[in-house]
Amino acid sequence: MNLLVEEEYLLSLIERRQSGMARGPGIKIRPSDLTKVRQTLEIFEQWGGWLRFYEEEGADIDLVEVVDRFPYLQRIDVDGAMKNLFALEQCEHLETLSIHGKTKSEALDISKIKQLLSFGFDDDIAGINIASASLNELKACGKHFAGSDLRTLSNCPAIENLTLINVQCETLNGIESLRQLKRLVLNGCKHITSLTSLGTVSESLIALHLENITKNLELDVIGKLQNLEQLSLVGIGDIESLRCISAHQKLQNIILSRVNILDGRLSLLKNLTSLRNADYIDKPHYDLRVRELEEFLNGQRKDDSILPMMAEDRCLEHPAKASPELELKTSERSVSETENLADYFRGLQEDGLSQYSSEVISSICDVINDYSNRVKDLGNNATNEQLFSKVAQVIQHLNKLHSEHRNELFETEERELLVSIINAVVESAGLNLENFEGSDPTFQLREF
After folding, report:
1. Cα separation of 338 and 199, whole Å?
2. pTM, to two decimals
């Protein structure tokens, strides 16, 4: 592959980006598009020094050539076959590195990339030394994350955000060295037998997401995480009780998805004085219905900062009931726009963007459909707080999807499409968008 870049081509990409036609920041092109003449530093400064490659059959990415041609890169995202990983150690300005794709058994020592803040890699990458005093964020996927515990991270004391997907560690021993850890995601880690070591980061940890890990793990250690603000328990089977979180006074958001609380005491959630959003599905043995909890949380949301951009009358119910015509209109809009949404993402899939698998497209549409149905279930007398809470929930799910797919799902066009649907549904239900910054209630919640 020739990495000499045609200057006119890149300038045309910049013009498209400035006019809103390009797909987000950074230069995101196939390896074979990088042809002909040389790249200028000025062009890369306009793009924030971000080069993105995605997979192309028969075209390996030679990282020696990348580094030689673009020595001032601040961010590199590679999704495809590559070679010569060691060349990345020469990137003095590199702050963000994401490498996902097949490579030969090559070594990479990220401790030599002195400015590196964020690093992500998957299970096709072997021989990586994860030891960096500057590293703030790590996303590791697959069996090549070495060891049966987390002691390999002992030389990464600055990590605040840690995501482990399908890794084979059995315990979290070693996590105690991450004294600044704020957010932890464990997804698909089915070899884990104990979470006890989480207690060693109780002072710093504010967000915990456990998904599809070992079934029926002991969760009592969560009771020690008294600074926890966000908790997601997804697909982890039976949970004996929520007693472990009943004294958490800082917990604001909780998701209980594809789990079963055996003792049924969801009423314990009422003990959480800071709780503002809870997401679970009613079961016959639960002692607190979702609608009852929503009414309770509505009272807790009043007079606090959960709606920072709303007018002074934000806690009043919407004065007018929606007419049957409006309710029908909302329903029809959600159906037709979700179909269009699926068609849009299928179009990206057909264009060769591998992150938009059929499963991902289905997940996006399910999230939007669920949101629309939840807004509709609020009925005609929904308050501003209830409506905004549904917006917060759908954005939380979309943020999570976006993060799980290397922050590559929702760029400019995708964001505008999703936000338009979300806002249209809640506006039809009675929320005045003008009370929010930029007439967009999603603005301060989105991470995409």
Report:
1. 42
2. 0.64
Banded model confidence at residue 368, pLDDT cuts 50, 70, 90: very high
Strands 128-129 vs 50-54: parallel, antiparallel or unpaired: unpaired
pLDDT in tens, 393-416: 999 899 888 888 877 888 877 887
CATH 3.10.129.10 fits domain 136-301? no
Q: What is the rounded average pLDDT of the residues 7-19?
A: 45
Q: Give, in order, the Cα–Cα distances in Å from 288 to each of 100, 261, 269, 296.
A: 44, 12, 9, 10
CB atoms under 10 Å from CB of 329, counted, come to 14
Rounded Cα–Cα distance for residues 392 and 447 (Å): 12
For residues 440 and 415, the answer to whether their CB atoms sit within 8 Å is no
Surface-to-core class of residue 289, CB atoms within 10 Å of its CB (0-12 exposed, 13-18 middle, 19+ buried): exposed
Tell me the mean pLDDT in the region 191-209: 94
Using one digit for the tens of pLDDT, what is the confidence trace for 296-350? 888 776 645 444 443 333 322 332 323 333 232 333 333 344 557 888 888 888 7
The domain locations on the chain are 1-129, 136-301, 324-439
53 strand-pairing partners: 29, 78
Please, which residues bridge with residue 77 across strands?
52, 98
DSSP lists the bridge partners of residue 54 as 79
